Amino acid sequence: MNFYPLIRPLLFSLDPETAHKVTLKLLNIAYVSGLGKMIYPAIEDKPVHVMGLNFKNQVGLAAGMDKNGDYIAALAALGFGFVEIGTVTPRPQPGNPKPRLFRLPEHQAVINRMGFNNSGLDHLLNQVRQSNYKGILGINIGKNFDTPMANAVDDYLSALRKAYTSASYIAINISSPNTKNLRRLQQGDEIKKLIAALKEEQIKLHAEHGVYVPLTIKIAPDLTTDEITHIAGLLLEFEIDGVIATNTTIARDVIPDHPLAHEAGGLSGAPLKDKSTFVVRELAAELQGKIPIIAAGGILSATDAQEKLKAGASLVQIYSGLIYRGPQLIEDIVKSL
Fold first, then answer.
1. Which of 119, 158, 166, 176 is the catalytic position?
2. pTM for this structure?
3. Fold of the domain built from segment(s) 42-336
4. Within the chain, how many helices (H) and strands (E) appear?
5. Pair 317, 295: CB distance under 8 Å
6. Which of 96, 134, 199, 255 could form a Cys-Cys staple with 238, CB 3.0–4.6 A?
7. CA nearest neighbour of 302 among 9, 29, 58, 5
8. What does the DSSP 8-state code read for residue 215?
């Protein structure tokens, strides 16, 4: 039975950030108590091999739901083929002032300006060690808000070194709109410098630990065609293992009259679908199957997921879709594969 429609009105009566915390705690209680097995159906394995990794299915949890790795096993038990935690920064930080999370139910959308609020990388890695999750785990890393842009590469390298042996793959978040100037790292020489440094460090860590951990780059949906082409060229040049398309959008053209349209932050959910799919399609044309694409953005149905896969993605991730559809969305997508 799909219980989510019964509890969604209660969750939506709470402010979004409180609802987020309550949902995670309830999921954890259900998981620890064993109730989860009775509530959620067992989802059939439909394995795929991507980035040298064996995924149980093609549906993953996007970063942002579990920033600190506190609920890895409980979330995975919903039937995800992989889970991505973070975004985590080298040092703990509180994020932006509240309120910083807004629902737009009329559009099945969310606006957030959380600002990489997290307990820091040491806490997250400790949670990973304590988790009994054995599946594919992505760790999404970012820079601290108070690290100067000139030193941004140092934050990413520091986080990469520490997280390397705890992750199945590492995602480099250079596309959040909620850390000042972060998206500059997607442009021109900035992104080339960053990717070159990360690839060099990955090679060193591979030699040091005898384990190859894939690197993915998470990009924005607000890039021009020329910028997408430039990024794709660098991904190929430096043999990056994957690309996540996309993060949230700063555009408001699809919700111009909504009373919350003026709120700063990234817009996700249904209004992001077409922008994200466009980026996936453009990347696929440039990459020609040489580098896999993980699609995220506006997936609220199995049809939406199929659209991303047909556009050229190898895997999909959901987040806002979970808020509006609940865990049934995972089963619907996996069944459609």
1. 176
2. 0.98
3. TIM Barrel (3.20.20)
4. 12, 13
5. yes
6. 199
7. 58
8. E
